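Lab notes, practical 5.
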Amino acid sequence: MTDLFVPLQSLKQGNWFKLICGASFQHLPAVRNLTLAYTLAGADCIDVAADPAVIAAAQAGLQVAKTLAKDAQKRGFNYKSNSPFLMVSLNDGEDPHFRKAEFNATECPKDCLRPCERICPAQAIVFDSIKQDFSGVVSEKCYGCGRCIPICPYGIIYTASYVTTPGAIAPLVMSTGVDAVEIHTQVGRLAEFQRLWQAISPWADQLKVLAISCPDGEGMTDYLRAVYDLIAPLKSALIWQTDGRPMSGDIGDGTTIAAVKLGQKVLAAKLPGYVQLAGGTNSYTVAKLKAMGLLNSAEFRVMSAEKDYITQHSALITQHYIAGVAYGSYARVLLSPILEKLENKEVSNTNVKTTIRLEEDEVLLWQAVELAHSLVSQIKSRQRRESEH
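Output from the prediction step:
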């Protein structure tokens, strides 16, 4: 079996792990370093913004990971140069994942306690930054969680949203070599979904995975069936991403309950494809799934030939368990102390200050991988045990 099919094997076995860098997250050093750390920790998929610069940063992280495969194995990480799939996120309409916070810092009273700065999980809000000579929202770091909006005492923070332009999608997918596409949609937007799908469908055969992300809503399962009727038949694997409580995973166990409940709802609909949790996932998620018997605990048949994956599409299979978990804000916040240390470590090169890359600091690198592995291993533990037999 080649490296290409390892993530698909994870989907089939029920231990798929996806890192969500963020559909609006464009901080290139962080995307590169998150990709590197979670790849070495055993992730199956890296989901990034549909931005050529962001895609290139993630691809750079994937390439560096390959050069560190032997070191990772020596340190006990189950990474064998098998690259995770690189996925881009698209949207067919207004969506909280595709927005940025904005405000004019000159409107902030001098005596404001600045709760927005403290609550921002991406550290995207800064005041009087000497390093950046800036006050306000650092746009490339903001991923649109919206927590700063209700907490602002003066109500001056707002968001700017954007919608994927269908005509720009196909060239992006074709030219950058991404493996997978995720479409964010909502109940009632079938016409908008169809327009976006029509722009993608001529090149859909080159994708290894198509994911459909949808939050809960009245008539959700009927809507997802209508979406399936539009996209079938598929040659790629199909994932239904259940967005339990969007962008809330680092808050607490209540969010993971919302994620699991929505996963159960979609499983009950018996749609062809795989069901993967997102939106509210965190350190409680896998334990909750195990306690509820929603992870596949049967003995897995490891396919011996790649043709099996080609002839047995997920689009033709209905699964009865959660196939995987995607982690966004929780996974990023987990590594944020290390990434912050890197940001503060600058090197001068011909009088130009540049940020140190994660692989250039061996201590921080393996600390980051260890932290990432503490999350990845929760769902990968069974896979690892089986590979040792």
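Observations recorded by the TA: The CA atoms of residues 75 and 366 lie 9 Å apart. The first strand starts at residue 16 and ends at 20.
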